[in-house]
Amino acid sequence: MIVGHKKQWDYLKRSFKEQQLAHAYLFCGENQIGKKTLAIEFVKLLNCQDINKPCGKCKNCIDISKGNFFDFLLVRSGEESTNFEGMFSYNSALSDLKSGEVLSDKKEIGIDQARKVIDFLSKRSYFNGYKAVIIDNADKLTVEAQNCLLKTLEEPKGNTVLILVTSQQERLLTTIFSRCQTIKFFANKEIRKLLDNSEKNKKEKEILDELLKVLNGTLAEKFAYTKNLKEDGVNTKEIFEILQKYFRQLLLQNTNSDNAQKYSTEKLIKIIKIIDRLIYELSTTNASSKLALEVLFLEL
Ligand SMILES: [Zn+2]
Q: Residues with Cβ within 5 Å of ion ligand 1?
C-alpha cells in the first residue's frame, strides 16, 4: 500500500499512460517517507502484465517486489540495510550481476557501479518491456560515477528508466539534476504521524528499558537514578506515564516482561493507583518530581 504521495503517483501513472515518460527521474525528499517504495511501484507499473497496473499479483509485479526481475536493478551503497525481502536473490539473466544486489560495499557508490548500471541499461529488455534502475541514496554517487552516468542520461536508449532516489539532492551535480525530471516528495500528515509514532515508541522503549534496570537494582541504585534526573530535564511526568503504561500491561498480562511474576495483582493495582496519585499531585502542586519518583521506587 502506498501511503500518501497521491499527486506524485497520479502524475507518474498519467505520464506512463500518455507515453510521456522521462528517461531519468530524481525522487527527492526527506528520508523514510516512501520514495524508494514508490519508485519500486513505478517499476511495477511499467512492467505489470495486468490491465489494472500495477496489480501487485502478476508474475512481473511479484518478481519486482522480490528483486528478482531481469529488467530491474536496485543499486545502493553498502551501508544500507536490506529492507526488501529477497532483494539479494540471484538474477541468472545478468551473468555477473544480481538484481537488487548491493553494488557497493563502501559508503559511496563508485564508478564501477555506475558502469554496471550503464551496461545494464544498454542491453535489450528481457521481457520486451522497460528496463529500470533505481539508485537509492543517489547522493552517495561519487562525482566520477555521476559523470559516468551523464552519458546515459544524455543519450538514453529504448524503453529505459533510471530513478535516482535521494534526500540530499544538493550533493548531485547540476548536470545530473538538469537531465532528470525532478519529483518532489513531502512528508504529509499520514506519513508524519507514522514517523512521529515510531520515534516516540523508540524513545519510550529506551526510557522503559533503563527504568526496568533500575527497578531490579538496589535501593542505592534507585536513588542514584532519581538523583541524576534533572528536575526540569527529562520529563518526569513522562517517566510516570511510561511506568503506568507498563504496569497496566503487566496487570493485563499482555507483556512477556520478567517482572510479570514479580508482582501480585493486588500489588499492581496498588502501584497503578500510586502512580495515578503522583501524576495528579505533580500536575496540581509544586511537589518535587524527584521526591515523587523516590516515593514510587520505595513501593516497587
Ligand atoms: Zn502486475
A: 48, 50, 55, 58, 61
Model pLDDT, residue 199? 79
Give the model confidence (pLDDT) of 166-194 as tens digits: 998 888 999 998 999 999 998 877 777 77
Q: How far is the CA of 54 from the centre of ligand 1 (A)?
A: 5
CB 235 within 8 A of CB 72: no
CATH superfamily entry for domain 6-187: P-loop containing nucleotide triphosphate hydrolases (3.40.50.300)
- Would you state the cell numbers that stand for residue 122, as one nine-digit string? 544498454
Distance 51 CA to ligand 1 centre (A): 8
Ligand 1 centroid, distance to 16 Cα (angstroms): 15
Q: Which CATH number fits domain 197-299: 1.10.150, 1.25.40, 2.102.10, 1.20.272?
A: 1.20.272
What CA–CA distances, in Å, run from 218 to 79, 151, 214, 297? 41, 67, 8, 10
Record the pTM.
Answer: 0.63
Who has greater pLDDT, 264 or 131? 131
